[in-house]
Amino acid sequence: MKCCFTVVSIACVLVLGSSAGGQIIPCLQGFNGGIMYGIEGSKNAPFSGIVKSSFEQKLADGNTIHGVTRTHQARDASGRTMTEMAQGCVRGEDGQMHERLSVNVNDPVARTNMNWQVGADDQPKVVIVFHQPDPPPRRERTPEEIARQQKLMELARTRQALDRKEYKTEDLGTKQINGVTARGSRSTRTIPAGEEGNDQPLVVINETWRSKDLGLMVMAISDDPRRGRTTTEYEELNLGEPDGALFVPPEGYKVQEQPQTGMIGTVM
User: What does the pLDDT read at residue 120?
Assistant: First the structure.
């Protein structure tokens, strides 16, 4: 079964020759930071897809910055996931700019997390394999730990009360998005004048639509006057068991095993 739908995620896409705040951005396309869009390790909900992310920012002088990047995502029936994240662009031996991708494969059955990079000639061809530690045995909390946890919860409630002065959240209900049932929510944040050096209030809107059955964000909108507008969509989504090769590092990569520290890292 094949189904295509639109997904939007938050990211920064950079463009060659454009500048923001005097900074020259040496990349035609790709991410350079941003909030990751993740995949839940749900079992028996396999899929694979091509994700297109585009960015637009209008500058005060009338100039516009544009950027586009494409990455892949996949999940098999056992819950193993593969996610590519664009990490900017690098100039290859052919003189052209190429996307640098960070690939992460999480295997909840083998309790491993693998990470490697592709597209960058200056990066080592190394696969870092992190072995997830065994969960600690459960024990009863001491009265001191319970009191500390209650204090933290009180602080969190206080922060939430302060945040509600700037944030407004709306439940958008459910709707069909290209055949997928999703529930939406919209968060509107109004940043008061002067809080971030702004002369007038700033309004930031984030809208997300998630499919509970697929465990995926099927649509989202990020519109921030400080950073521009980012949209991400599945150009192609296949509901079914993905090719097993998507979860295997490229040939010629050296494997480095890491101890069970519980830390997940990135090949730099």
Answer: 67
Structural domains for the chain: 19-165+175-182+207-258 (2.50.20)
Q: How far is CA 197 from CA 4, 189, 194, 200, 202, in A?
A: 42, 16, 5, 9, 11
Helix/strand number for the chain, H first, E second: 1, 14
Lookup: tokens for 42: 């749900």
User: Mean pLDDT, consecutive 10-residue segments, the chain of 268 residues?
Assistant: 36 34 39 52 86 83 84 92 84 73 92 88 84 82 88 82 73 84 90 87 88 82 87 80 93 86 42
Contact 182, 210 (CB under 8 A): yes
How far apart are the C-alpha atoms of 219 and 208, rounded to whole Å?
Answer: 6
Question: What pLDDT score does 16 carry?
Answer: 32
Proportion of the chain in helix, strand, coil states, percent, rounded to 5: 10, 45, 45
Residue listed under structure tokens 């938050």:
10
- How deeply is 259 buried, as exposed, middle or buried, from its count of CB atoms within 10 A (0-12, 13-18, 19+)? exposed
The Cα–Cα gap between 182 and 259 comes to 40
CA atoms of 121 and 92, how far apart (whole Å): 6
**CB environment 95-120: b (16+ within 10 A), e (fewer):** eebbbbbbbbbbbeeeebbbbbbbbb
CA–CA separation, 74 and 175 (whole Å): 24
The residue type at 82 = M
**CA 41, CA 263: separation in Å to the nearest integer?**
18
Q: What token pair was written down for 77?
A: 């029936």
